[in-house]
Specification:
Elements: H1 3-7, E1 17-22, H2 27-41, E2 45-52, H3 65-83, E3 87-93, H4 101-115, E4 119-123, H5 133-148, E5 165-169, E6 176-179, H6 184-192, H7 195-198, H8 203-218, E7 229-236
Parallel strand pairs: 1-2, 1-4, 2-3, 4-5
Antiparallel strand pairs: 5-7, 6-7
Helix pairs in contact: 2-6, 3-6, 4-5
């Protein structure tokens, strides 16, 4: 049974408004830049929420935390402009800070209710071997926010909004593959907009890895020509609670 078809949900590239929640200022670009560019060109409104300030990055060379945050904010804005992001929202938690999933939840739900997206996008917190606490807390908080943004009892303030779907990138169990061949160079440019993170001696190796990974994902599309793709685990809201088959959906 195809639950998306049963519920009449649109494909990922057909959504009209999406909120993309990233733990750090560069995660959306690494995980989904090609797809986001394709969405922007189709007229989709893209809202970024960045959970942390990126201040734990040691690669900027900046002498102070304040300067690191300033550099990463500038880079985030530049990357978003390349992709056609409509709005950027910063939650301002400290990178690797002691904030909790509940702290995130309380900030995310009012934004989701105000923006009223058709879909949420974030990192997959259940990826095997994921050890970064910012990624785990962000992914789980976004999934929980999806369930409770429509719940007036637990969160009475504001007008409830039900988000029908969520897309997880950096996932080990993808069910959706997006051909981003025509947007590949834009994806790379958006990643390199984060100069403090990627414009270094490791970039040739990273680019090779990104290209290999994306070319392998493209083979899942069974197209005649080689290319590049991004992969997502797309789930309906109903699949995020008491739905064991979601892993295999």
């Amino acid at each position: 049974m195809d639950i998306k078809q049963l519920l009449g949900l649109p494909d990922l590239l057909d959504v009209k408004k999406i909120i993309c929640v990233q733990p750090h200022p560069d995660d959306n670009e690494v995980g989904a830049a090609g797809t986001l560019r394709a969405l922007a060109l189709r007229g989709c409104e893209i809202v970024y929420i960045t959970v942390t300030d990126g201040s734990a990055s040691g690669s900027t060379g900046a002498p102070t935390t304040e300067e690191i945050v300033r550099i990463r904010e500038y880079e985030k804005q530049a990357a978003g402009q390349l992709l056609g992001v409509s709005k950027q929202i910063d939650l301002g938690f400290h990178d690797m800070g002691d904030y909790s999933e509940d702290d995130l939840l309380k900030q995310l739900i009012p934004i989701i209710r105000a923006e009223k997206p058709d879909m949420l996008m974030t990192v997959d917190p259940w990826m095997p071997y994921e050890a970064h606490p910012d990624h785990i807390k962000t992914g789980k908080a976004v999934a929980t926010a999806m369930l409770f943004a429509a719940n007036k009892v637990r969160f009475p303030e504001g007008e409830p909004h039900a988000v029908p779907q969520i897309a997880f990138y950096a996932t080990s169990h993808p069910n959706t593959f997006i051909d981003i061949t025509t947007h590949w160079e834009t994806k790379l440019a958006s990643i390199l907009a984060h100069k403090s993170q990627f414009d270094n001696e490791e970039w040739p190796m990273l680019r090779m890895y990104f290209e290999y990974q994306a070319s392998q994902l493209h083979r899942k599309l069974n197209l005649d020509q080689a290319g590049f793709a991004e992969a997502f685990k797309v789930l309906a809201s109903q699949q995020l609670h008491f739905f064991p088959a979601a892993l295999y959906s």
